[in-house]
Amino acid sequence: MTKIAFAEHQAVARQLVMLHRSGSLPHAILLSSASGLGLDAVAHAVGTSLLCDANEEWACTRCRGCELVAAGSHGDYRWVSPGEGKTGIGVEQVRLAIDFMSKTSAYGSQKVLVFSGADRMSSAAANALLKTLEEPPGNSVIILLADRTWFLPATIRSRCQSWRLPPLSESACRSYIREHGLIPPEDDQTTRRSLERLVVDHATGRADSNEQVALAICDILDAGGSSDKLSRTLQQTELTEGIQAVLLVLEERLRSQLYGNASVLALLHLHRVVATLLQRIRGGAIPAKETACYEVANLVVQAARNQLAELQRGLDVMGA
């Protein structure tokens, strides 16, 4: 079974399994994470426990059900994620998943369907899933995993019970940092959040690109720099990852109230237009990379100058 790296996440997984054992687990769960980590591991651990043949508090890892899940061959367990080279989950993937749910259970009475990256589901895919969420097959569980739940339509969110993996504690972050030989920031500005950010960047493999994007944005917001550095940095990354890195930096600055020369209203406007761009890319829109990078960098400059009218123009262009 997939190991859950952090105790905070394991506690949530155990709560969900206990609800299942007591017959109180909802048929549809929307799971998000405050840190952005742990979603796949928790969903897999819960799914394995639900399909475990042993009547134990947690998946036994020894029974036929657990072994089949570990081998990726359990007939009542389906994992759906964006296909290779795709930015999101398409309608055909959802239709196949619905067909899986409609069939009789192969090994018992429980079926588990997981959508990893549910917030990257196309509009058509989300609409196709609605009826199944409204009228789920008996004794089945659907788990939607989303970094940003607000990317999902309200009609999907309202049909799920929302759960959120909590932030990582400072002790959990420091333990991870020691285990992986990382160098923690040690100064008067070190916070639990800065330690968590180091853990997240390392765990996701985005440390270098995220750091470069963060530095370029800080140069604009804090020092009045130009858009050139950020535009070049974004062009050196895959477009979706680059735009997502910008969104992460903006979210961190808003959480930490580090507005620089921008007002909070300007940063909120900027966050909204960048989030809309990311959602459109994940929905299948393919803008010219050079143009998209230039426009995003220019919008950051406009936010630093508190040019709300220009930011509003960006929102209008994105249809936000």
Provide the CATH architecture of the largest domain: 3-Layer(aba) Sandwich
Q: What count of domains describes the coordinates? A: 2
Uncertain spans: none
Mind telling me the C-alpha Rg? 21 Å
Number of helices: 14
Remind me, CATH topology of the largest domain?
Answer: Rossmann fold
Distance between the termini: 41 Å
Q: Summarize the main sheet.
A: 5 strands, parallel
Strand content bin: 5-15%
Order of helices and strands: HEHHEHEHEHEHHHHHHHH
Arithmetic mean pLDDT? 87
Q: Quick one: CATH class of the largest domain?
A: Alpha Beta
The CATH superfamily of the largest domain is known as P-loop containing nucleotide triphosphate hydrolases
The overall strand count is: 5
Structural class: alpha/beta
Please state how the strands of the largest beta sheet are arranged side by side.
Answer: 2-3-4-1-5
Written overview of the protein:
This protein has 320 residues and is an alpha/beta fold. Helices cover 55% and strands 8% of the residues. The protein has helices at residues 7-21, 39-50, 64-71, 91-102, 123-134, 154-157, 170-179, 192-204, 207-223, 228-235, 239-256, 264-282, 289-304, 308-318, and strands spanning 28-33, 77-80, 111-116, 140-145, 161-165. A five-stranded parallel sheet has the order 2-3-4-1-5, sandwiched between helices. Strand 2 (77-80), helix 4 (91-102) and strand 3 form a beta-alpha-beta unit. The relative contact order is 0.10. The mean pLDDT is 87.
